[in-house]
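ARCHIVE CARD
SHELF: 3
SLOT: left
DATA:
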Amino acid sequence: MTPTSSPAISLWDTSQGERIRIYEAAPGKSRRAFLEQQLLAARPSASKTFYVSCNFDTGGPWAGVGRLFEQIIAAIRAEQPHLAELHAFELVHILPQLRHSLNVLNPTLTDLAPNEEKVRNYAADRAFRIVHGLIDMFDAWKARTDGDPWVIACDDFDQAGVVGNRFFRELIRRRGEKLKLFLVIGTAIGTGETIAASFRSHNVTTIEGVDLADDSVDVLNSTSALERARHLEIQIGDDRLEKQIHLSEMIELWSAANKMDKVIRWKYFGLSFFCNLGFYADALRYGNGLLEEAAKYLPEDDHLRWWIIIKT
């Protein structure tokens, strides 16, 4: 596809069934600014607009989904608090910090067992049941509070995790028409057709190339990254909830500080943690190349390498 300069977004012709626009462009700040311009132009016809990044590396398996619900959860809890309680199980997976204020009803023995006593993983479809529970809550809230169109800009969609990608596809499939939802997707050049195909034939998609600067590289200073990583690791301690919340940040900071032994151990936490939850495909994102890295940078730690083998 030949990149073109694209005009600002116009109101969708809903009679044609179009709910998705895909923009191929180099990743980075320029693409984010472009997508935000599209949202700004859509606001006269949309009551709400949202920008989210779906990049697994910066947001984990629920990248994009967590950020979307961060922007609406306060309103849900204020307007329909029973919905948040009813769907507490789903919410604490995408926003783990909510475990401090939401009570998850009927946890399983695997949920309650200490980490060293967990002896089984969850069913593979558990992650997708969470996806559909979130959509049910979203539907119940928006259908009662706002009948106007909403536009969600999903940047870095080619870098999304399995469950994050699945959420947006299922949201449009199940509730796109009813809730008047529209997606603006930012993705790498050459990936638009594949993403369009993943949404299937029930949606008409428009794919455009946009000529933007490649300004995705934003290198962290190694000294400041090291200082921040050490401080945050002390703050987190052995709290698994805090580890989950800060996992992506810790991997990024230790990577910038070039402390590969730390990167490996944090990636292993992600591999083990999400594998135990039943998010197997996303867990493997943390495990890709991890055994080789452990052999290179932590050759004396046979125990860690053995567990990486087990989990992958």
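SLOT: right
DATA:
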Amino acid sequence: MVTITAKKDGFRRCGIAHTSKPTEYEVDRFSAQELAQLRTEPMLVVEVMPTLESAKPPTAQALATLIGEAETLEAVDALIAEDEKRATVLGAAEKRRAELT
């Protein structure tokens, strides 16, 4: 479950006019790119609630693929958890950052 609250009522991002009241969405409502964009938007408060299905972290290869498709440096950073230590993921992030700069 993803809960989104706009700091300004009607603020638009990812084709949605977000409200100043918390709104819940199914986690699969957004692509990984959109979710990264939403999470890095300073005008939004985004909370991702783990579910039984999403409680497991994505595989290193799946995450590396998402990073390779990221369109901005912010999206790359949003896809990497603070405690990420997998070489495949960190290598993909380093490569994509170099491509985007």
